[in-house]
Design goal:
Layout lengths: L5 H5 L5 H5 L1 H20 L2 H32 L8 H29 L8 H5 L1 H17 L3
Helix pairs in contact: 3-4, 4-5, 5-7
């Protein structure tokens, strides 16, 4: 393995996309947990923790999407996706967008310095997690190294 060949480094035994994907999922789930605790306990410190977890989760989706697309381009040589891989790409992008939307709702609420987050945020908080889990469950065997 040549250390300066980017394809060799990226497609080592554990590809970067497979490793990076867990950060936004975990940060998002913990952010949602902090959010619900903040609503239940009425503590602004927990709301701040939720906000920052969601912010980092939204930022972390960028390298995840980029490494996923690069893996597709390099490993499959850009061939047309179909079946589970196409669904994995669509659901992954949709999850990234929804994570960013949930963070945006929290950002707007913090800017207005409202004590209570809008009621519709409860329905949006769990949606990206469900899409991420579904995408992982359906695509994990296809993407795993032999």
């Amino acid at each position: 393995m040549h250390p300066f060949d980017i394809k060799t480094v990226v497609f080592a035994k554990h590809a970067q996309h497979v490793v990076l994907i867990h950060f936004p999922i975990a940060l998002f789930i913990i952010g949602v947990l902090f959010d619900f605790l903040a609503q239940w306990k009425k503590q602004r410190l927990l709301a701040a923790a939720a906000y920052y977890n969601l912010l980092v989760a939204a930022i972390a989706t960028i390298p995840v999407v980029v490494t996923g697309i690069l893996a597709w381009q390099w490993e499959l040589e850009g061939q047309k996706l179909k079946g589970i891989l196409l669904m994995h790409l669509v659901m992954g992008c949709l999850s990234s967008v929804l994570i960013c939307v949930v963070w945006f709702i929290h950002m707007r609420t913090r800017r207005k310095q409202e004590d209570v987050l809008p009621g519709y945020r409860c329905r949006t908080d769990g949606t990206p997690r469900r899409f991420s889990q579904w995408s992982e469950w359906t695509g994990i065997d296809v993407l795993r190294d032999s």
